[in-house]
């Protein structure tokens, strides 16, 4: 059986050499109220032919599931730890010891440490400008001390606005003026330590934040009016953006520094341009583009990249926009949202869903049919539901944007109910709501049933506590 699998893999590698050499990675974030069990996720990643994962922390459950999985792992060091690790060599050594060495010894194939996540975003107001580079240096020092610096490399996932081009032409690319010297120092350090530059590239955000952005330029179909830069011609933003970085590196003396695309993807909901059609078109376009192994005009060859992201996360901040909770190529319960051929393994038949997912009952919470829309209590209950659950699928041109007002209210109630594990108390809303066995889903609007979470203790502890209480009460009464 395994021999057959290996043979199939080998054959598909021969036909798609560049893909198998590099493989495609996935960003696995966990800002979710109901995470799929890590083992289920690892199995899903395997069956869909991923070979690398990028994490945003080093959470124990995730790391344990990756033991002996063969996946290349990029562990993350969150921004809120940068200050501590910047100021204390000891803290960096402890971090590496606990979050790298221990897992490497247990068979987790850690290859990178991501120091911070987009720490130089302009919205952070420079909060991490002083601490990121010292933290990077301390982590590198700790890796050397732990004897891991050959196999584990440091990097900083940076947003693409750390570089820019005043004319829009890639050849005019350079680092942002306010952080230019810092960037050059970091780039030199990465180069000195045989590490890579990691950048997150988002044509979707360009389209979202600039209504004049040419839509076709976000995609890979070659339909955009080209940007001509000397002898190079660009018809997609990704190539132009990556080459702007390459020019910036080149201009400062590091034109050959390896580059990792840390995040690339497209959300499916929460905005008029976030839908499954566009997401499919973008991600499939990207996969096809990179699987040719042609690279960009400035850097021919395979591209090392991690799709953003694997699974939707219902607890991400929506400060950047309502689309934030919808980046997954899989839904919260591990269903593929659209066909995506990764060019590897089984995926030519489309993505496979997570297996063995355990759902709660087929039950929903809706607005009682006899409640008139004029009921004065509605406004407060809706805003309560939406602020504690997730209403980002309601709104102009979103997946549930076509619901009528009653449907809208039911969606908010139900989302809150599901998020609270279908607790009856969570379907009251001052008596305005009721549960039903009829699925209210329509067309693109899914009223999903919540999944069971692994963490049984959170459910059993109260019952256990109650038992102890009854036992003590019994003891008290019988001794009196
Ligand atoms: C490919 O799909 C088949 C049938 O769905 C499944 O049994 C098999 O495990 C998959 N292969 C891999 C490598 O996941
Ligand atoms: C290891 O990583 C975890 C998860 O990111 C973090 O909570 C913990 O503080 C880290 N351990 C040390 C010793 O820094
Ligand atoms: C950055 O500054 C703006 C305006 O002063 C403020 O609204 C925002 O909360 C700040 N963000 C952070 C991360 O400090
Ligand atoms: C449904 O709710 C959304 C978000 O609160 C709102 O933008 C939209 O106008 C509502 N639609 C109807 C028909 O009430």
TrEMBL record:
InterPro entries according to UniProt: GH, Glyco_hydro_17, Glyco_hydro_17_plant, X8
GO cellular component: plasma membrane; side of membrane
Domain of life: Eukaryota
SUPFAM superfamilies referenced in this protein's UniProt entry, alphabetically: (Trans)glycosidases (SSF51445)
SMART domains, per database record: X8
Compartmental location: Cell membrane
Gene Ontology MF term list: glucan endo-1,3-beta-D-glucosidase activity
Record's catalysed reaction(s): Hydrolysis of (1->3)-beta-D-glucosidic linkages in (1->3)-beta-D-glucans
Name under which the protein is recorded: glucan endo-1,3-beta-D-glucosidase
Species of the source: Rhynchospora breviuscula
